Amino acid sequence: MAATTVTVQAGHSAAGQAARRIWRAVRRNRKAAAGGVLLLLFCLLALFPGVIAHDNPAAEIYPKNLGPSSAHLLGTTGLGQDMFAQAVWGTRQVLIIAFGAGLAATAIAAIVGVTAAYLGGAWDGVLNLFTDVLLVIPLFPLLIVIAAYVHSSGTPVLITVLALTGWSYTARQLRSQALSLRGRDFLEAARVRGERALYIITVEILPTMISLLLAAFLTNALYAILFASSLQFIGLGDPNATSWGTMLYWAQNNEALQAGYYLQAIVPGACIAVLGTAFALLNYAFDEIGNPALRPVRKIRSKRVQSASA
User: Most confidently modeled of 16-25, 74-83, 286-295?
Assistant: First the structure.
């Protein structure tokens, strides 16, 4: 019992050390700093939207299709709603979908991929079969079919659909990493001690894959934003929800572009692009942090440039 307690503490200590190393590396990476600042700004908007936008985003009480002014910073929509309030309040639902679907998809991928790699045999074959089936099915058409079936069911259902259909590629990545760890000495020592497979997977293997899990979460969150906004844009989300995708849907429904009211489409599209850029920058940064081969290449190139200039 004492040995197991010491091993658990050692596993938590290793995970803590890995997290601290990642944090130090993130602070030194320009991509991570830029992406982190952008994501922090969006998180503040999602947490305190009423402090920044005082109008009710759903209230149809203003003149329609107004241009930007001091009263309405981004103008109003074709339904008479304040567009600035909609953009600010819509951040909350977008981030809920991004974090909810991203975390859920990454958790499913970790369970399936690492379990398949560690257990091997029939488990590996069965779990790989499910993974391969989802990998060969075109994801967006599948999402359209499912979203059409559960039309206007709300954000939790949308998160569930995105998570259950978006974990396969990440599972394949995590399985490959876990296969490279399966024969390591620390896992053999855990088997000799008689540790269970669940303990080895959760305490011994997963803490060594923190950077890869973070990168997988960022990728899944980015795709969740894009897919959710796309589904809402084509009318398969909840049209009464305040979100950037529904803003695009109503802009299209009211023929804003044809009438020359370009901001009604540009504002939500720009918000999606900037938030996607934040997740992409963080993902690139974790790729550099988790792949040691990328750092020496930059150093070698800088040394060559310095020697050439000298």
Answer: 74-83
Q: Which of 16-20, 132-136, 201-205, 276-280 has the lowest mean pLDDT?
A: 16-20
How does residue 26 score in pLDDT terms, banded at 50, 70 and 90? low
Number of domains in the chain: 1
Instruction: Give the rounded percent of residues in the chain with a pLDDT score beyond 70.
Output: 83
Q: Which are the contacts of 277, defined by CB distance < 8 A and separation ≥ 6? A: 35, 38
pLDDT band at 293 (very low <50, low <70, confident <90, very high): low
With a cut of 80, say whether residue 113 has pLDDT above it: yes
The token pair at 87 is: 């953009």
For range 286-310, the mean pLDDT: 55
**How many Å apart are CA 85 and CA 93, to the nearest integer?**
13
Query: What's the pLDDT score for residue 17?
Result: 60
CATH assignment at residue 75: 1.10.3720.10
Domain of 78, in residue numbers: 2-309
The string of pLDDT tens digits covering residues 180-189 is 887 778 877 8
Q: Which three-class secondary structure string do you get for 135-189?
A: HHCCHHHHHHHHHHHCCCCCHHHHHHHHHHHCCHHHHHHHHHHHHHHCCCHHHHH
Rounded Cα distance, 33 and 25, in Å: 10
